[in-house]
Amino acid sequence: GENVEQHPSTLSVQEGDSAVIKCTYSDSASNYFPWYKQELGKRPQLIIDIRSNVGEKKDQRIAVTLNKTAKHFSLHITETQPEDSAVYFCAASSSGNTGKLIFGQGTTLQVKP
Amino acid sequence: NAGVTQTPKFRVLKTGQSMTLLCAQDMNHEYMYWYRQDPGMGLRLIHYSVGEGTTAKGEVPDGYNVSRLKKQNFLLGLESAAPSQTSVYFCASSPVDRADEKLFFGSGTQLSVL
């Protein structure tokens, strides 16, 4: 069935360093790939998304890249700050126009000051 | 405009008890979803609805039922709670009928089944 694998499960970086989280998906019909950030005890919130007709998208310190041939996409955070510490989830749209998103397992990012 | 509101925020049940979680959205969204979040497993879709009066199964539907009698409300029911249903439950809504739109999440319900 449809599956999204996310790595690593935990990531610790020094403030100012870059962080990269990678996801692979199984459904070749997926065409929408959002990333959600969840701070401790809070609800997930969309931080960036990319559609299948685009290879890269940037928004200030965050960027997402997509390789449809290899069926993987990545989140890049540059100049990390302590407030970037959170759990990050990738997701891929499910085929069949159902509105479903399949989420990865999540990455806990810790940015050390 | 409150967005997506979930009630209750916390609940403790004994095995075999039943309960209903309520999700309400005031954004006139067509699509609504129930996810559960467990450590190391991400967000898994339980059931979803593409409009008033419709429901469909997600990835982990067993042990749950849902209803969408009104467009703004999506109810999740546990008929006979089991310890495996201990989890954090999130409701979400989306404005369009494709998967390429932002999900608006509620604040979550922490459920413990003893």
- The helix tally of chain A amounts to 0
Estimate the helix proportion of chain B, in percent: under 10%
Instruction: Kindly name the structural category of chain A.
Output: mainly beta
Q: Secondary-structure element order of chain B, as H and E?
A: EEEEEEEEEEE
For the largest beta-sheet of chain A, the strand count, sense and barrel status come to:
6 strands, mixed
What is the average of the pLDDT values of chain A?
A: 93
Number of strands of chain A: 11
Give the number of DSSP strands of chain B: 11
Number of helices of chain B: 0
Cα end-to-end separation of chain B: 36 Å
Order of helices and strands of chain A: EEEEEEEEEEE
Which radius of gyration of chain B do the C-alpha atoms yield? 13 Å
Radius of gyration of chain A equals: 14 Å
**What pair of chains forms the biggest interface?**
A-B, 28 and 26 residues
Oligomer: heterodimer
Taking the alpha carbons of the first and last residues of chain A, their distance comes to 41 Å
**Which structural class matches the secondary elements of chain B?**
mainly beta
- Shape descriptor of chain B reads globular
